[in-house]
């Protein structure tokens, strides 16, 4: 399927969703119009609110704070996941020793960590950053770990037969093999970095998109809540697009479609 056709179909899905939303909040098909608008607002009102927020400039400060928290959570979590994932994959004994602890830490609901991080790091950006790190780290870690372990033994044996040392194996065999797994996890973890930042802001903050949504929810401003969600979705798509731009030149050697998620 051509890229243009794919894009057209994706836009068609969005148009269908907004059209259905508009229909059920304009005519009494599902329930009374006032009731539907109280719970779901209307797409026209939501986009008017988004436009007003950008026009007045009230949203830029909140976007910037959420962006900083997301980028820091993404960079720190992904870096730790890549380094420790490689280390565990190359050292089976270390992986076996830490295996139960990794599983226990991964099983912890991240929301319960938010108050702990707020206590440790305060209500500034770092409590949100570390909440995001706990989400990003495990996604990247497991993908890198699996990607390195999936390298065929035949390839490794041939590389060693040609005289490669451990550093050359890491550079020419392990890293290219794991790169597709890494980028696959990065696409997913971008969304989780945003989730960590927004949940942290929602639970305790004085700025950010999560704070905006929480404020709107507190006064039953459904249009404000949906406007915050629309901005948040556009924000995630923008960051994901940046990851895709970085991914393409690095995976140019891979045949076929580069994107895996």
From TrEMBL:
It is a multi-pass membrane protein. The keyword Isomerase does not apply. It is found in: Cell membrane. It holds the Pfam family BPD_transp_1. Keywords: Cell membrane, Membrane, Transmembrane, Transmembrane helix, Transport. SUPFAM superfamilies: MetI-like (SSF161098). The keyword Transport applies. This is ABC transporter permease.
